Amino acid sequence: MDDFERPVLAVRNINKQYGQGCVNCRGSKGEGLLKNYCPVCGTVYACRDISFEVYAGEILGIVGESGSGKSTMMECLYFDQEVSSGEAYITAYKGGKTNVFKESSQQKRYIRNHLMGKVYQNPLMSLKMNFSSIGNIAEKLISAGNRNVGQMKVRGEELLEHVNIPVYRMKEAPKNFSGGMQQRVQIAKALSNNPPLLLLDEVTTGLDLSVQASVLDLIKSIQRQLKISMIIVSHDLGVIRMLADRTLVMLDGQVIEQGLTDQILEDPQHGYTQRLVQSLL
Amino acid sequence: MNIEYNFAFFDEGSKREIRRATLKAIAIPGYQVPFASREMPIARGWGTGGLQLTLSLVGKEDSLKVIDQGSDESVNAVNIKKLIVLTTGIGVTDETAEATIIQSRHRIPETPLQEDQILVLQVPIPEPLRYYEPSEYETKKLHAEHEYSGAWLMLFEQIVNYGAMSTGADHPVMVHSRYVMAPSPIPRFDNPKLNQNNALILLGAGREKKVYAVPPYTKVASLDFEDYPFRVETFQDKCCRLCGAKDVFLDELLNDITGEASYQCNDTSYCLQRMNGKSKG
After folding, report:
1. Staple A36 to which of A129, A149, A252, B132, CB 3.0 to 4.6 Å?
2. How far is residue A250's CA from residue A63's CA, in Å, rounded to a whole number?
3. A211-248 tens-digit pLDDT
4. How confident is the model at residue A67, as a pLDDT?
5. How far is CA A77 from CA A87, A118, A197, B149, B261, in A?
6. Any catalytic annotation for residue B239?
7. Which of B91, B206, B243, B281 is catalytic?
8. Which CATH superfamily is domain A3-280 in?
9. CB of B172 less than 8 A from some CB of A
10. Looking at the partner chain, which of A109, A138, A170 has a beta carbon nearest the beta carbon of B156?
């Protein structure tokens, strides 16, 4: 296969369950259940057999109602949670021949620090609120092995400028910033190592419309300039329409529909997607 | 009422438990070993960790020296000495070279230690990553995964804010290229003395219930950056006003009336020794 066509990330059959399962559901990985939980024992199957690929320079959108397993899947990909079963291959890591879920926790940390960036819905998850903004960006650089203060400062200032935060505020702690600014510091931190893959989890939820627009513009421009692949999770179809090249629709922990974003939005096939698109119009 | 205590205050079982933890600490340089810290007749935070180590180690032949902030005669040092002497009957000394066990707070003596000596340091906060990560569960993981970006981040913050590493005491060190360790609140000046020291160095935190150790001849490196190397405090051309010593840790004394500053050895027994030597010669 040509390198050009090779996916940056390939995900195969991710399953994530909470609970031991019972005679009714065990072994089935939640297949055959109507909803994403077992009515007998209450085991929740948050992700059921999710597979997809992300190609270079592409933005993959994931939509779905709350509780559909979007964020759980993202947390599994960023190793915040362990998957119950499944595989993921990252081309930049050992040529994409190793299942990264099977690696040691040190190796997972290496992958997180060098090959991925994640922007959470809640900035508290990735930022140290009492450390300076530039320190927060430097944290990711330090964990990738940089031990040169001068270099890190230059890179940090460059990134802050890139996300429209005035450089004279770099020593301020993110706790003094507005929600939108915190979100932008997070983006700067996630980008600091030039990772080939960026995970964005509900980045605009909870921001007012004008700030939303500026954050979305920023993401779009970053993607154009740096050609980073992104996975963007949202329940807001407007965000998906604006950013995503391809879209997955999730419901009850399963991918029920996938395709080009325009196709999904203009010609939805699944009943849920149809209702979703209808609610937007 | 006259209470009879066992030799060295503790019952034999207690001493054995502490020694077991100590042996483990020596086997894994820099690793914090939990131990069952006992209630002591002095307040927590007054050196209970060091005191328990000393009591578990002390034998009938030992000679004890206790220092607090460089002085053998401060309240804390005197009372710890009293407790140990009353329950063991061993002799005390002020001279570093004569002591077999040296319990210390805030200083490593100026006189180089020997192979047959043990230095016991009292530690208030044994976890070097505590300010960065409040959760013990998380810091344990960080140690296990050799993820120390937090320690460097704290130094980075100081450089960003103050233009230099400004740790007055307790500058984190890397022990045997594996564990980052808080060397107890000794000044930076004493950090190089930890490296390849002849003596066994034990550190005890009573409140936090941790013991850790630097065995003799272990590599101990202070954390720093490529462009901001580790430096000890300098006193330039200052010397002790009593004994004239240079290249030692000096206390600054301000004259309230004239406002003049004068300098004096922080290690009082070293100063006294030098002055006695002078008068003899």
Report:
1. A252
2. 6
3. 888 888 888 888 888 888 999 998 888 889 989 999 99
4. 86
5. 10, 10, 11, 22, 61
6. no
7. B243
8. P-loop containing nucleotide triphosphate hydrolases (3.40.50.300)
9. no
10. A138
